[in-house]
Amino acid sequence: MPIHYLRTLTAPERTDRNNLHLGITLCFVAGATNAGGFLAVGQYTSHMTGILSGLADNWVLGNSRLIIAAVASLLMFMAGAITSTLLINWARRRGSRSLYAEPLMLEALLLLCFGLLGGQLDSHSPGLVSLTMLLLCFIMGLQNAIITKISKAVIRTTHLTGLITDISIELGRLIYWNRNPSTPEHIKVLCDRTHLKVQASLVMAFFCGALLGAFGFSHLGFSSTIFLALILAILSIGPLIEDF
């Protein structure tokens, strides 16, 4: 992909095309991070639905340690999203071209921190494991807020329930039988094939990233995050250089 186009992926000027390409890339990174994070800490850190469900279960069961872990995970995910929002709005006020690149570069640096911090997990310190999990939750919140603001809430990258629901709806429309060919267009059931392709592309990117993340973590350990951090750094470096 040309360097010029790579720079447009995080530029302030947005098109449906570069939104999709950025969304696919971030879905890939999210899938790899989520799968690798699960192998590291035994929990999917982008799944706030599961974390809230676990919070309710452990509240009823009276497991205070897991209640604290769930609340902390939720708060760190929110903190990541809040940080991303603050960085983007602050950069927009300054007229910066790197308003989307800055939080992506921060994510790249945090992924490197995850690799460095995760390497210490051999010490089997419960506190360190918790810190690693919270760092991953922060990263997931940071990334999801970036693409949500860029695409005006059309694209999500860290969880797939809504994407798979959208795919299923479009498939249902695709196989629906409009019995009468003369049915007026405004009441015909028609599949939005473009939307279906977009959602399917995002899901496949997440899945491919998860496969690579699980494979990389299994064979390379925490150093596999260097590749993911490099992807994000390449995406964000162009607008940052323009500002400087």
TrEMBL record:
Keyword annotations of the record: Membrane, Transmembrane, Transmembrane helix
Pfam family name, one: DUF1275
Coiled-coil segments: none
UniProt-listed PANTHER family: SLR0142 PROTEIN, UPF0700 TRANSMEMBRANE PROTEIN YOAK
Protein name per Swiss-Prot or TrEMBL: DUF1275 domain-containing protein
InterPro entries per record: DUF1275
Keyword match Glycoprotein: no
Transmembrane segments: 20-46, 66-91, 103-121, 127-147, 198-216, 222-241
Keyword Transmembrane on entry: yes
Organism: Iodobacter violaceini
